Each structure stands twice: as C-alpha cells, then as structure tokens.
Amino acid sequence: VDVTINDKHRQRMIVDSGANTLTLSATAARDMGIKLDDGVPVMSQIADGSTVPATMIKLDSVRVGLSLIHI
C-alpha cells in the first residue's frame, strides 16, 4: 500500500494493521528525509521475538492509502 510520512515522503510498503508502531530501516528512513539524529535510542522487538537497537522518532503524520493519522 502507499504510505506517506509527514505529508511529504511517499513509499510503497507492507503494513501490519495490528502493529502499534511503524518500523523502517535506517536507509529507508534517511531516503524519506527522516532525521535519525533527532531520535531516542531504544530496543525494538521484531517479528521473531528478538530485540534490536533502533531509534524512536515522532512523526507528524502517517497516511496509509486514503487514511490519515495526525500524531
């Protein structure tokens, strides 16, 4: 589905409709203009149950298809 972040950066993505967070690779985030330097280091649990280092960023908005969420 098409996902637009902060009303600027559009990317085709697979979306987990039951997830409470949006996870991107560092490369994808940078390609979309998201500044990782502004984030908070965290540990994130991934699908296989293991944890990996990540950076938490607060986004202004996320549009999934026609649905828009302002955060």
Describe the structure.
- With 71 residues, the protein is mainly beta.
- It contains 1 helix and 6 strands.
- It has a 4-stranded antiparallel sheet, with no helix packed on it. The protein has a two-stranded antiparallel ribbon with strand order 3-4.
- A hairpin with a 2-residue loop joins strand 5 (61-64) and strand 6.
- The model has no long low-confidence stretch (mean pLDDT 86).
Number of E strands: 6
Secondary-structure-derived class: mainly beta
What is the overall shape? globular
Q: Describe the sheet with the most strands.
A: 4 strands, antiparallel
Give the overall average pLDDT.
86
Annotation keywords:
mainly beta, single chain, 1 helix, 4-stranded antiparallel beta sheet, two-stranded antiparallel ribbon, 8% helix, 6 strands
Secondary-structure blueprint of this entry?
Layout: E1 2-5, E2 9-12, H1 26-31, E3 40-45, E4 51-56, E5 61-64, E6 67-70
Antiparallel strand pairs: 1-2, 1-5, 3-4, 5-6
Quick structural gist:
With 71 residues, the protein is mainly beta. The chain has one helix spanning 26-31, and strands at 2-5, 9-12, 40-45, 51-56, 61-64, 67-70. The protein contains one helix and six strands.
